[in-house]
Structures are given as structure tokens and as C-alpha cells.
């Protein structure tokens, strides 16, 4: 009896939940069992489980004490399992419809999944084939096939895929370490895979395959082009309907489309791919954003500097950027002088380090905050280019703060203040942040002393806490040279965009041998902070366009007011209105075309001009303007001076620094 009791004790393991509560379960308990022990409704929704921060299938037995988190569809881990399982389901459908298909990789992505495939027997898959594949997926999903995980020796896995003749998988297997490899099967399909997967195919209720694209195997232009099929799935049809509706809206908000309509920017193949040309209205918009930032930065004690677009190769050898960008980016520029080489500037930081070095610095001089709207150039493959969000030349709203280690936290807090202020002014109310720290297990791969790292990590954590911003901490995500804090904003359609970043750096001060004289009269190394609230002007303008659908806040709008005379009789007074407003610093246009007023109003609304002034007989007689607001219609009549005053006060309110 006692022996049996002891044996039973041995079989219990401790499971720690996210709220730090601990429960005992039998050894071999699965995520699903744990969910069931909590509630049936949770068990119905649970899709995956993190076991000591590794995502597992909910059907996989847990044999040791562990910390767990259960994931439903609303977690990113839950979506990952759902969409990756859907990729396998699509592969099963493809194998059924196109026998002999070979498979590359099929990951879950931010929205849905894709699979890169080489269709069997020379078949070609186009968008027109997607409904048929979708139907097959629906049929297979309804079979409720379980996703079975199996561990097999590398040799046996190789034999299996050799039999299938799948050279892509064989190449992937060759790169894996020796030992056992996990395979997943559902229905008639088996894949080399780390998982995680759903227990079975039945939760995949709503399926939409979105489009087909070409993708080089392993991203290498010299290798075979495979067919990439994108899709998305949901546990409910209504969720898919909402998503497709959002996609429609996103199309209407595409910054490339609106940028063209509003004449903000353009691209020219003659100038070169990924090199945006800012048109007058776009340039003015960007200038206003920069002026706004300059004002904020001045208030926070930044000094503006300017540095050239190219730099000597040695500068980037010192900074380490030559090693990183030299081979894979723009090639060096050679001068008539033998052996002299320059690089297009990939980063502003090395230049700023040289500015720091122009004179001796004391502990009393720090922090030094150097800001520059610095244009940098990085090569991107032409397939990666996308409007203003992925370009080959862009201007960072860059700044570098050189400070003492004991000033880090305060400086971090100040940068957070700037970023929060910008988000508030530009109406990005919904944002999340991520702190990226060192890998706890492997501290060797980071430069800088243990003490400094701990100080910096603590400073970031405390700074975010004191500023009351919600944040998640990711271990092992820090760069080798320092921890960082990233800001992601949610736009009006609920899409996430990575914008601002604050990054601590111990590396460049070392490489450039930056120093200051401390209060102890000894030489010390400053810490460097890189920060860019917008990221880049290009990317930020793109996000702003998609967030506002081109309806910029009044202070930013390229044109703020348009004067619309009802007929030619009122042109003289309308001109007077135009001049008065322009002289009052209000960006005003006039539409004197011989068109019906209804048409003029409609077209001005399409141009997203915030205020329309209708001028007719009454207005001329009374020295007034009839005001219409974009999207809100008639606002009544105002005296001209009163209107100008109102607009200027609005602008002031919108950009007030508090
Ligand atoms: Zn898989
Ligand atoms: Zn930098």
C-alpha cells in the first residue's frame, strides 16, 4: 500500500500558471487535459500551449514540472498553431488535386499562412484555381483528421522523402542536426515539421485562399521559382467575413493609391526602384512633420546636426557597418584617387560618433543629444520593395544620446515622453510596446559588461513602469550590443505597424573609443541611445496615410481650405477670401471653374480638403463665408476674420506641446 502511494506521489508534476499559481497534475498530462480541468468552454477553445516558453501541441504529454500558458485564437501563439495547421491542410488538398506536388516551406505569417510548392507534372496554379483548392480543404477539414506527431530518426525521414521524391524537403533535412526529427501527419499528408499543430482539422471552419505569387526557393534568385499560395482561415465564418471586409477597406486606404490621388509622392523607373520622389504637396507634408518634431526635440534639449550622404569606407569598417552592409548593399564608390573608397551612408550613427569626438567631454557635458533628419541608403531586393514602406533610400528622424550609465533611465523616460506625445498628436491611441532583453541562458554572445547590461535592462523596465505603459518582455530578442524598446501602433483598421524604437548601445562607443572625464578625473565610456520615434519619414507618412485614409489632421493637411464660388459673379470676393486666408497662414485654394457647385463640393471632398467655403450672394453682401467641413457637411456662416481665427486656433490646439 505504502509502495503504491509512493509511486503515485512520484507521478505528480507541478504546473505553474501565468498568475504564478501552481497545481499538481499526473505526469504525462496534456495541455488539453489541463484546459479541461479548468473549464469545458476553455477546452473547446484552446489551440496550443506554451510549455516553458516553447509552443507545443495541446495533445503532447508534459512529463516534468513546467510553466505553461494556454492559447486560444486571440493569442498570437494560438493563431500560429491554427494557421500553420491550415498550411498543412492546404498541402493535403494540393497533394490530392495535383499528385506529385513537391513542398518547400509553409509557415504561419502575421495574417494567415502560405506554402511554397512545386506543383506535380508541370501543372501551373493560378488565382483561378484557388476556389477549387479551397473546396478541397473544406472537405478535408470536415473529416476531423487528427494531426499526429511522430519522432523518427533522421535516416528514416530521409528515406521517406526520397521515396516521395521531394528534393526540397531533403535539402532541409540535410541541414538539421542528427538525431530524431518530428513529423506531423494528418489524413494522407505527412510533413517535416516542428509544430505546433491543432489536435485535429475540425476547428478550421472558414477558409479563404487569397492569391498566388512566385517565390524563389530559399529566396535565392538563382534557384527554382516555386508557387507561393497565400491563405487565411478562421474558427468562424463571421471572422473571415470581417477580415475580408477589412482587406477591402485596406485597399481603399493603400498609401500608394492615396499618394497618387493626393499628389504626394511618385516613383520613376528612370530614377530607380525604391527611390521615392516627393511631389510639392508631399514634400510640404513631410516638412511640417519634421518642423513639428524639431520643435519637440528642441524642447527636450536636442541639438540638430547635419552629415553627408556618403562616408569613407574606414568609417564603416570602424563602426562594423561595412561588415554588415558592405557585401549585401550598395557597392563602394571609387574616386579618381587610387584606393579611395566611399560608401553610401547606411546609418547616421558613425557620423555622430565622430561629432562626439571633436572635443573632450566631461561628465558635466552629458547627456549630449544629437538629432538629424539623416537620409540613408540600403539595398533591398526589388521583390521586397513596397511603396513608401520598403524603399532603398529613406530619411530617419534619427537622434543619438550620449550619456552616463546613471543617466540612462531618465533619458529613456524622456524619449518615451516624446514618442507618447507624438502618438497623441497624431491620433495613434492604440499601441503596444516590447522590451527586448538578453537571453538569460547565454550571456556570452553580448558585448558590454554584465553590470552595465543589468543596469540598462533595469532602467528600461523601470522607465516603462514609471510611464505606465503596457509592455511585454521578450528574452533573447536584444541586439548583441544592447537592449531596446519598440513601439507598435494599431491603425484605424486594427493593423499593427512597427514604428518608433529606442535602443541602448555599448558597441559603437567602444568601437569609436568615445570617452568622457568622470567626476573622479578618470576616463569613462559613455552609453549611446539610438532613437527614432517615426522610424523613417517615408514609413511614417505611409502609415499615417493608411491610418487616416488621407484625411490628415488640419495642421498637417496639404490644403486646409478651398474657396468655392457659386458662379463667376462672386469671383472678386472669393479672391479676397483666398488672399486673406493665405495671408493668415492658412493653406487655401480656389476653384473658379465654371462647374455646378455640387460637383465642386464633391471633388473637393475627394481631395480630402478639411474645410470648404461656399461663396454666394449672401456671403458677398455680409462679408461672410458659408462653412462646410469634410465629411460633416454644413457648419453655418461665419465672418471671414472669425473663420481665419477659428482655423488658426484649431491648428494651435492640435499641436500644443503640453
Ligand atoms: Zn508544420
Ligand atoms: Zn543610430
Largest sheet properties: 8 strands, mixed
How many alpha or pi helices?
Answer: 21
Mean pLDDT: 92
Lateral strand order in the biggest sheet: 16-20-21-28-25-24-22-23
Instruction: Kindly name the structural category.
Output: alpha+beta
Give the overall shape, derived from the CA principal axes: globular
Helix content: 25-40%
Radius of gyration from CA coordinates: 30 Å
Amount of beta strand: 25-35%
- In terms of per-residue confidence, which ranges show pLDDT below 50 for 5 or more consecutive residues? none
Spell out which ligands are present.
Answer: zinc ion
Features:
21 helices, alpha+beta, globular, binds zinc ion, 33 strands, five-stranded mixed β-sheet, single chain, eight-stranded mixed β-sheet, 658 residues
Q: In summary, what is this structure?
A:
Helix content is 36%, strand content 26%. The chain has 658 residues and is α+β, with helices and mostly antiparallel strands. Strands 16-20-21-28-25-24-22-23 form an eight-stranded mixed beta sheet, with helices on both faces. Strands 2-1-5-3-4 form a five-stranded mixed beta sheet. Strands 6, 7, 8, 12 and 13 form a five-stranded antiparallel beta sheet that branches.
Structure description:
There is one protein chain. This protein is of the alpha+beta class. An eight-stranded mixed β-sheet has the order 16-20-21-28-25-24-22-23, with helices on both faces. The chain has a five-stranded mixed β-sheet with strand order 2-1-5-3-4. The longest helix has 22 residues. The protein is globular and about 90 Å long. The structure holds zinc ion (ZN) (2 copies). One zinc ion (ZN) binds next to helix 4.
Amino acid at each position: 500500500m505504502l509502495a503504491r502511494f509512493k509511486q503515485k506521489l512520484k507521478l505528480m508534476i507541478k504546473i505553474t500558471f501565468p498568475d504564478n499559481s501552481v497545481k499538481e497534475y499526473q505526469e504525462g498530462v496534456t495541455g488539453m487535459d489541463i484546459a479541461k480541468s479548468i473549464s469545458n468552454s476553455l477546452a473547446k477553445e484552446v489551440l496550443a500551449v506554451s510549455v516553458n516558453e516553447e509552443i507545443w501541441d495541446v495533445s503532447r504529454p508534459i512529463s516534468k514540472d513546467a510553466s505553461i500558458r494556454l492559447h486560444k485564437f486571440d493569442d498570437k501563439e494560438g493563431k500560429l498553431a491554427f494557421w500553420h495547421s491550415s498550411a498543412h491542410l492546404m498541402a493535403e488538398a494540393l497533394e490530392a488535386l495535383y499528385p506529385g506536388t513537391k513542398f518547400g516551406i509553409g509557415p504561419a505569417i502575421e495574417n494567415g499562412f502560405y506554402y511554397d510548392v512545386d506543383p506535380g507534372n508541370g501543372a501551373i496554379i493560378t488565382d483561378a484555381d484557388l476556389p477549387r483548392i479551397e473546396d478541397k480543404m473544406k472537405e478535408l477539414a470536415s473529416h476531423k483528421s487528427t494531426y499526429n506527431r511522430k519522432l523518427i530518426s533522421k535516416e528514416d525521414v530521409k528515406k521517406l522523402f526520397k521515396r516521395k521524391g521531394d528534393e526540397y524537403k531533403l535539402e532541409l533535412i540535410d541541414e538539421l542536426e542528427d538525431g530524431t526529427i518530428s513529423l506531423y501527419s494528418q489524413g494522407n499528408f505527412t510533413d517535416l515539421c516542428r509544430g505546433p499543430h491543432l489536435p485535429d482539422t475540425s476547428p478550421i471552419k472558414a477558409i479563404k485562399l487569397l492569391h498566388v505569387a512566385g517565390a524563389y526557393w530559399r529566396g535565392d534568385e538563382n534557384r527554382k521559382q516555386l508557387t507561393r499560395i497565400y491563405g487565411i482561415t478562421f474558427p468562424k465564418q463571421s471572422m473571415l467575413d470581417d477580415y475580408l471586409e477589412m482587406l477591402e477597406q485596406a485597399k481603399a486606404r493603400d498609401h500608394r493609391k492615396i499618394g497618387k490621388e493626393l499628389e504626394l509622392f511618385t516613383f520613376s523607373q528612370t530614377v530607380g526602384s525604391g527611390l521615392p520622389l516627393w511631389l510639392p504637396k508631399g514634400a510640404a507634408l513631410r516638412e511640417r512633420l519634421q518642423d513639428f518634431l524639431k520643435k519637440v526635440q528642441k524642447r527636450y534639449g536636442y541639438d540638430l546636426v547635419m552629415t553627408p550622404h556618403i562616408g569613407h569606407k574606414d568609417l564603416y569598417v570602424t563602426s562594423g557597418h561595412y561588415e554588415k552592409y558592405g557585401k549585401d548593399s550598395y557597392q563602394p564608390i571609387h574616386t579618381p584617387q587610387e584606393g579611395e573608397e566611399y560608401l553610401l551612408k547606411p546609418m547616421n550613427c558613425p557620423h555622430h560618433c565622430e561629432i562626439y569626438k571633436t572635443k573632450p567631454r566631461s561628465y558635466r557635458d552629458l547627456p549630449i543629444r544629437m538629432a538629424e533628419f539623416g537620409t540613408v541608403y540600403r539595398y533591398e531586393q526589388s521583390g521586397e520593395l513596397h511603396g513608401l514602406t520598403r524603399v532603398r533610400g529613406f530619411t530617419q528622424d534619427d537622434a543619438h544620446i550620449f550619456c552616463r550609465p546613471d543617466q540612462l533611465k531618465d533619458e529613456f523616460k524622456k524619449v518615451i515622453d516624446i514618442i507618447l506625445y507624438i502618438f497623441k498628436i497624431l491620433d495613434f491611441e492604440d499601441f503596444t510596446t516590447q522590451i527586448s532583453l538578453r537571453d538569460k541562458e547565454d550571456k556570452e554572445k553580448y558585448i558590454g559588461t554584465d553590470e552595465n547590461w543589468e543596469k540598462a535592462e533595469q532602467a528600461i523596465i523601470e522607465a516603462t513602469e514609471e510611464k505606465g505603459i503596457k509592455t511585454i518582455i521578450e528574452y533573447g530578442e536584444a541586439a548583441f550590443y544592447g537592449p531596446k524598446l519598440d513601439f507598435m501602433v494599431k491603425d484605424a483598421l486594427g493593423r499593427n505597424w512597427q514604428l518608433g524604437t529606442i535602443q541602448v548601445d555599448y558597441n559603437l562607443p567602444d568601437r569609436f573609443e568615445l570617452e568622457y572625464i568622470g567626476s573622479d578625473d578618470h576616463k569613462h565610456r559613455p552609453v549611446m541611445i539610438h532613437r527614432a520615434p517615426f522610424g523613417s519619414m517615408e514609413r511614417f507618412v505611409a502609415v499615417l496615410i493608411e491610418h487616416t485614409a488621407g484625411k490628415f489632421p488640419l495642421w498637417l493637411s496639404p490644403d486646409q481650405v478651398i474657396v468655392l464660388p457659386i458662379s463667376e459673379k462672386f469671383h472678386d470676393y472669393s479672391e479676397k477670401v483666398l488672399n486673406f486666408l493665405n495671408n493668415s497662414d492658412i493653406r487655401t485654394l480656389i476653384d473658379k471653374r465654371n462647374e455646378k457647385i455640387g460637383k465642386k463640393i464633391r471633388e473637393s471632398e475627394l481631395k480630402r480638403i478639411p474645410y470648404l467655403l461656399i461663396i454666394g450672394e449672401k456671403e458677398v453682401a455680409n462679408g461672410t463665408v458659408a462653412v462646410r467641413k469634410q465629411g460633416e457637411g454644413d457648419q453655418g456662416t461665419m465672418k471671414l476674420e472669425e473663420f481665419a481665427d477659428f482655423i488658426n486656433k484649431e491648428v494651435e490646439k492640435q499641436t500644443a506641446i503640453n
